[in-house]
């Protein structure tokens, strides 16, 4: 079955000149934040794709974006060696945290008071996971995190906050997943189910599960507290991003080849579709075409009635599901 039969015409968001690196919905789902390799963070209305504004100031490619629980502040991390905090409504820069290397991942905890971000292993600097408490202006002023965790073995390539803001779940270049305590920085749990880099980690809406997307052509579902491996979804291409539906037992995955090899293949062979898998049966039941290049990130709307994908082609596409999609059920 092609999933396109249960999709309305997609809304195309054109606001970036280079490939999209991450897209994020706010908690209510009325806004989408997108960042790309072109120094600008955009915010859009998810209902109609209208651009609300931009966050200007970075001077390098942006790798990550996050929005806090009440859509007050926005956090961005960039290859210009800085992590910046913005006022969501006005676009004003509230804080700039300088680092020694590119900021690869960033995120607010559930309260919106603690932020974490990780830096790349490059130019002689190792990878660090930093925690700042925004309630303490001195930390921001002195650019001194209350906790810094060195990751000597393998750099962090993706990270999300776990439930209750007690730890960060990080995916590494070597395929490992670690839980880093937000209080002590110690590794609480460690698993290695992937044998190549983890490109993306996303949580379920209730934070009980996380889904990984890996270069080893698979995506896996884990319990976010115990890191027990629950399900696996296999494809024949590297997976760049994966998301869990908040209302259905479905996951969506996006990927394709390495950007370097893209020019040598037609869009059909390149496998640039978003793929839908059943979360319980691990079976693929649909694909959605659209992007002219690999899909770099996918995200479900918090109400589960639409999803977005951001591609190497610089476009973000919002796909709304037809009501019949919600009646769809795989035969056991």
Automatic annotation (TrEMBL):
GO terms for biological process: formation of cytoplasmic translation initiation complex. GO terms for molecular function: RNA binding; translation initiation factor activity. Coiled coil: none annotated. Keywords: Cytoplasm, Initiation factor, Protein biosynthesis, Repeat, WD repeat. GO terms for cellular component: eukaryotic 43S preinitiation complex; eukaryotic 48S preinitiation complex; eukaryotic translation initiation factor 3 complex, eIF3m. It comes from the Eukaryota. It is found in: Cytoplasm. Its main location: cytoplasm. Gene3D superfamilies: YVTN repeat-like/Quinoprotein amine dehydrogenase. InterPro entries: eIF3i (IPR027525), WD40/YVTN_repeat-like_dom_sf (IPR015943), WD40_repeat_CS (IPR019775), WD40_repeat_dom_sf (IPR036322), WD40_rpt (IPR001680). WD repeats lie at residues 13-54, 55-96, 288-318. Transmembrane segments: none annotated. The keyword NADP does not apply. SUPFAM superfamilies: WD40 repeat-like (SSF50978). The keyword Kinase does not apply. Pfam families: EIF3I (PF24805). Component of the eukaryotic translation initiation factor 3 (eIF-3) complex, which is composed of 13 subunits: EIF3A, EIF3B, EIF3C, EIF3D, EIF3E, EIF3F, EIF3G, EIF3H, EIF3I, EIF3J, EIF3K, EIF3L and EIF3M. Belongs to the WD repeat STRAP family. Belongs to the eIF-3 subunit I family. Component of the eukaryotic translation initiation factor 3 (eIF-3) complex, which is involved in protein synthesis of a specialized repertoire of mRNAs and, together with other initiation factors, stimulates binding of mRNA and methionyl-tRNAi to the 40S ribosome. The eIF-3 complex specifically targets and initiates translation of a subset of mRNAs involved in cell proliferation. HAMAP family: eIF3i (MF_03008). This is Eukaryotic translation initiation factor 3 subunit I.
């Amino acid at each position: 079955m092609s999933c396109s039969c249960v999709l309305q015409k997609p809304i195309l968001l054109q606001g970036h000149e280079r490939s999209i690196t991450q897209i994020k919905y706010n908690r209510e789902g009325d806004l989408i934040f997108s960042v790309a390799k072109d120094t600008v963070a955009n915010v859009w209305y998810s209902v109609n794709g209208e651009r609300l504004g931009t966050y200007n100031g970075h001077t390098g490619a942006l790798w990550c974006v996050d929005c806090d629980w009440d859509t007050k502040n926005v956090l961005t991390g960039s290859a210009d060696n800085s992590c910046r905090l913005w006022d969501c409504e006005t676009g004003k820069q509230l804080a700039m945290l300088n680092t020694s290397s590119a900021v690869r991942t960033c995120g607010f905890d559930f309260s919106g008071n603690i932020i974490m971000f990780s830096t790349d292993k490059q130019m002689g600097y190792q990878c660090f996971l930093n925690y700042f408490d925004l309630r303490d202006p001195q930390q921001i002023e002195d650019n001194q995190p209350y906790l810094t965790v060195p990751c000597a073995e393998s750099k962090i390539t993706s990270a999300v906050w776990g439930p209750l803001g007690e730890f960060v779940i990080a995916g590494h270049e070597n395929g490992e997943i670690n839980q880093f305590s937000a209080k002590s920085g110690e590794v609480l749990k460690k698993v290695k189910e992937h044998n190549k880099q983890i490109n993306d980690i996303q949580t379920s809406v209730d934070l009980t599960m996380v889904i990984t997307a890996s270069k080893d052509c698979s995506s896996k579902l884990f319990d976010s507290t115990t890191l027990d491996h629950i399900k696996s979804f296999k494809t024949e291409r590297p997976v760049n991003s994966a998301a869990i539906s908040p209302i259905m037992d479905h996951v969506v995955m996006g990927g394709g080849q390495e950007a370097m090899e893209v020019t040598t293949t037609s869009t059909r062979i390149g496998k640039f579709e978003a793929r839908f898998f059943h979360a319980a049966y691990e079976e693929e039941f649909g694909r959605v075409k659209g992007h002219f290049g690999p899909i770099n990130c996918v995200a479900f709307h918090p109400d589960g009635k639409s999803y977005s994908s951001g591609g190497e082609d610089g476009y973000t596409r919002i796909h709304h599901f037809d009501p019949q999609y919600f009646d769809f059920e795989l035969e056991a």
